[in-house]
Amino acid sequence: MPRLNPILAASAVIRDESSRILLVQRANPPDMGCWTLPGGRVDPGETLEQAAVREVFEETGLTIAIVRELGQLDVPDGKGGVYEIHDFWRRRSAATQ
After folding, report:
1. Do residues 89 and 12 lie in contact, with contact meaning Cβ atoms separated by under 8 Å?
2. pTM for the full predicted model
3. 7-92 sits in which CATH class?
4. Where in the chain are the domains?
5. Partners of 84 in the β-ladder
6. Which domain of life is it from (predicted)?
7. Which residue of 3, 18, 25, 30 lies most exposed, with the fewest beta carbons within 10 A?
């Protein structure tokens, strides 16, 4: 059965030179207080990639460039809807280290 009107979201996987993955603590529902990849909802007129770049900057202050999409997963919103989350790999650069 197809999902009706999923809430689009995008996040980025950011690793440092020690291969640690950057996580942020969620400030808002769903999953407020939980640790997750930096990301959030896609704004109207925004691509998934643009949303990932914007959300990472808003949540961490890092400027990133997207390399490719890693995958997509669905997360129930607790109200009968679903978040369709797209995870992206970011390009390493001196500006983001």
Report:
1. yes
2. 0.86
3. alpha beta
4. 7-92
5. 8, 74
6. Bacteria
7. 18
